[in-house]
Amino acid sequence: MAITRYDCITCKVRDCSILNECDKKTLTTISTYKISKILPKGDRLFSEGDPIRGIYFIKKGFLKVELNGKQGRPLILQVVGKGTVLGHRLNDKHRNHKNSVTAVSEVQYCYIPNDLFEDIVDKSPGLKEHIINQFLDDLELAEKKAVNLAHKTVRERIAESLLLLAVVYHYEENKHGFRIGFGRQDIADLAGTTKEQVSKILKDFEKEGLVKFAAKKFNYLNTKMLQNVSSYYPTGNEE
Q1: DSSP 3-state of 72
Q2: What are the φ and ψ backbone dihedral angles of 226, each rounded to 5 degrees?
């Protein structure tokens, strides 16, 4: 579904995306060729194995990035929000998506077909560098995910998953909590465990004063204590 066209130069999301350092000419060109759309909650932006056809700039909403896992269960690599860029891995050897992306809330995004975006990138060395850095960040994230699954306990992984969600949903202590768009099974897929283990450990965390929650609403997270449990310290760049 198409929505009103947005100007990249005045877009409030630009300061948290790779477009932040682009010059006015590049932003004007992107604004000219992009298509603004809405993705309903539960719909897929693209699926693992689909041809890479273009670049997606997330303006509003949240999505989960998944890989096919064992026994039919997906592994959620990350949950992403505004400012995220998806579909930027195209090259001569990799022309298909390596993961699936599904909306966990209604999502507003801007889309540019590959041929147009490649031409824009070729004329903007700064944007090209940011695309490469984004790819390297994604690679580092996948490597950390593999290490965590191999070496961290379920308790540590669930604590880390809560911290990742806190970053994506911009949680701040002493302010309002946040409501996530998915259930215990999704948290399990993010942590690489089972729904039953998530429910048990969340109850343990609540008894220990680490979290306060009701259904899909997290009213409070003790981020320092969760960091101690997980040995993970968010930088704010995980989106």
Answers
A1: helix
A2: -65, -35
As given in the structure block, the two tokens for residue 216 are 């899909």
Q: Which residues sit opposite 75 in a β-bridge?
A: 67
Q: Which residues, 6 or more positions from 132, have their beta carbon under 8 angstroms from its beta carbon?
A: none
Q: Are 128 and 122 in contact (CB under 8 A)?
A: yes
Question: What pLDDT does residue 142 have?
Answer: 80
Please enumerate in sequence order all residues whose Cβ is within 8 A of that of 181, keeping only pairs 6 or more positions apart, or say none.
41, 62, 104, 105, 216
Are 12 and 60 a contacting pair, CB within 8 Å? no
DSSP state of 104: S
Residue 86: other Cβ atoms inside 10 A: 23
List of residues 6+ apart from 145 with CB closer than 8 A: 75, 77
Report pLDDT digits (tens) over 27-60: 888 888 889 999 999 999 999 999 989 999 999 9
Q: Is residue 10 predicted with pLDDT exceeding 80?
A: no
Specify the higher pLDDT residue, 153 or 10: 153
